[in-house]
Specification:
The protein contains four helices and three strands. It is α+β, with helices and mostly antiparallel strands.
């Protein structure tokens, strides 16, 4: 089953389980209501929909759910990184010391 095709057939904003079932049947007419629980779990685990209330779901936008931490290393942390890079030059990958 094409999860992304189901998501494209959902309305913008919130939708109900019945609307998700309808969208699944548009994509695959032989889709049975007994398969809905598995589909809901798959869509939620794939971060394609999120539950926003009782029987209310919403498509996940293209924006990331959580922002990426871009903090600054402390002086002590930089010293540890530099020491580790000297001791194990191939072990840390792409850690950059500034």
């Amino acid at each position: 089953m094409n999860k992304h095709a189901i998501i494209r057939n959902l309305p913008d904003g919130t939708c109900t389980i019945q609307q998700i079932l309808h969208a699944a049947r548009i994509v695959e007419p032989s889709f049975k209501e007994t398969q809905l629980r598995y589909l809901m779990g798959t869509l939620q685990n794939s971060s394609l929909i999120v539950r926003v209330g009782r029987n209310q779901y919403q498509k996940v936008g293209k924006e990331p759910k959580k922002s990426i931490f871009t903090g600054v290393y402390s002086k002590a942390a930089l010293q540890v990184i530099e020491h580790m890079q000297k001791q194990f030059p191939l072990g840390l990958g792409t850690v950059l010391v500034q």
